[in-house]
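Re: beginner question about structure tokens

> Can someone show what the tokenized structure looks like for a real chain? I only ever see the sequence side.

Sure, here's an example I had lying around. Input first:
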Amino acid sequence: MSYTTVLSLTIGQGSAPYVWNEMCKKYFGTADFMYYDCIDKLWPIYKNKEIPEHHRAVLMMTYDMAFVSKNNFIRAAKDIRLFIKDFPINISHTNHWNSIAKIYEDENLDCEAIGLWCTSVSENPFEGDWNEELEKYDCIDWEESTDIYKTLDSI
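And the corresponding structure tokens:
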């Protein structure tokens, strides 16, 4: 079972699979929850300006090492809300995007950026690589990370 981590706050399953499923159904015609059949085609569509920016932004929020800078928190919340409007949440499935949007909308949030760890079947990419010699995680390489809105604005 997979779960989503917002920084160090674990909020359970119900984030990335919903996005991947809905986008693969819409843009590639896959059956419900058959997104693995088109996942490799899905990753690069954030570059396609024919697709609404809020779809591309929310998709990018599911990428490893992608983050939203503090100056774009409200923009991220709006994009999530528009995405949910376009792809209504099925109440029979767990979904945390409303909660994630609320985190971005929290005016008291004191952090410089928010990144999601949506693939808990792998190591947390925001911890960096494990250093056996020092027995701790190295600092992450920020050159390998993606500022979502900086990237979208440059397309």
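Each token stands for a local structural state, so reading them left to right follows the chain. The longest helix spans residues 73-86.
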